[in-house]
Design goal:
homodimer; mainly alpha; 3 helices; AH/BAR_dom_sf (chains A, B); BAR_dom (chains A, B); Adaptor protein, phosphotyrosine interaction, PH domain and leucine zipper containing 1 (chains A, B); DP13A/B (chains A, B)
């Protein structure tokens, strides 16, 4: 089993072509993880929505059966056998509906919460950092450009000092944002396994508990 | 427990106000059953649709996990522990998805089929018969009207004979459609309990079998 690869923070200042090339590999990997996780997120969202709908529909069915007695049937409305049979059905379906509702809640907490956090927080943060890094790189390039054009002409000391200051602050900014970006890309390599496994474990656990609950409440008693 | 009430077919020919009044009660009861069954049908359709969606979403999740190995992750793509763990998740979720698919099929056969048949065949037939009966009653009224206007004037024998013939055939038609309509309204009184209980039994049976299947395939082994 290979170790987790890292973008060396100490290379950020030099910003060599080798570092840029390694950054490209990390960005490609991050894009692949992001793409895969988004697909998994969408599939899990579909499971969660369907489970919620199933819970609501089962509850509605149980409610309809409970309301049978309130219906005004001009003929045979006082049929007690039918009425009590439907009430028993309503009771069992109501228990099923409660189990469905518990499962929905557990899926929300143990499956949707971690994968949504990963998608909306970690992956989004990386996109933001990528943009911030791009902007600071562009600013740095502009400052360098301005400085190099300056040196050919004979400008006054004040303008020259401003240009030097500009190069210094923009390089400092770029260095900082690059380290921050590298750091987040490295962290993703540590988080990516947990990010996939945690919602899956949550799904399995919720599902297994639901099956046990159904078993108990439907009193099949194997 | 009261017996099942009937519209007397032998009263159809006389078509007295009492018979019409009793018909009104049966029609009201039929409308109430139809309304209640349609609500139950919609709730069951929602359960069935949600179960189908759950089955499809679970299958998709399992397929995504199986495809993990085919993803191109530039970093750490050869992590065998992660890969085999996800394959095991995929296998279990695939089994859950098969159970969901079996449940969907059973709900289609044992719940949706009987209630759809009742709604689309029995209840629709009654609406059609009501219309047919209405038309033949109107035709009969027209024929009676024409005959009564005839007798005041002095028409020739041919026209008179035609009017008599018209009254005869339209009354015969009305009598037949009324008996047919009464017969279907009576049948509904016999069918209404089965129509409610059959899809509910189908739902319960499918659900119980699914829980047992889940238990076996998830090998919890209580």
């Amino acid at each position: 089993m290979p170790g987790i690869e890292k973008l060396p923070l100490e290379e950020a200042l030099e910003d060599s072509p080798q570092t840029r090339s390694l950054l490209g590999v990390f960005e490609e990997d991050t894009a692949a993880i992001s793409n895969y996780c988004t697909q998994l997120y969408q599939a899990m969202q579909r499971i969660y929505d369907a489970q919620n709908e199933l819970s609501a529909a089962t509850h509605l069915t149980s409610r309809l059966l409970k309301e049978y007695d309130k219906q005004r049937f001009p003929l045979g409305g006082d049929d007690e056998v039918m009425s009590s049979t439907l009430q028993q059905f309503a009771k069992v379906i109501d228990e099923l509906s409660s189990c469905h509702a518990v499962l929905s809640t557990q899926l929300a907490d143990a499956m949707m919460f971690p994968i949504t956090q990963f998608k909306e927080r970690d992956l989004k943060e990386l996109l933001t950092l990528k943009e911030v890094f791009q902007i600071s790189s562009d600013d740095h390039d502009t400052a360098i450009n301005r400085y190099s054009r300056l040196s050919k002409r004979r400008d006054n000391d004040k303008v020259r000092a401003e240009a030097v200051e500009d190069v210094y602050t923009s390089r400092k900014k770029q260095h900082q944002t690059m380290m921050h970006y590298f750091c987040s890309l490295n962290t993703l390599q540590y988080k990516k396994k947990t990010a996939l496994l945690e919602p899956l474990l949550g799904y399995m656990q919720a599902q297994v508990e639901a099956i046990v609950d159904w078993f108990i409440s439907s009193e099949i008693g194997i």
